[in-house]
Amino acid sequence: MKAAAGKHHPHPLALRPDELASRIGVSRRTLYNWLKHPDASKRLPQPFKMGRATLWRADAVLAWVAAQEARRG
Description:
Blueprint: E1 14-15, H1 17-24, H2 28-35, E2 48-50, E3 53-57, H3 58-72
Antiparallel strand pairs: 1-3, 2-3
């Protein structure tokens, strides 16, 4: 079953840069800066390519966010 154009699944398997940035409240530039963070424990998971689209696995991002929250205490 295909989603209608312009509608987002409430729990997508993968996120585009704009979707990810919006969901965590940062700019796209910040996402790409986090990919290169010198501290590996703070580094955003690597995206993957599907065709020309750059995507992040939602489960990997959720695990990364949880790890960042745990670091803060």
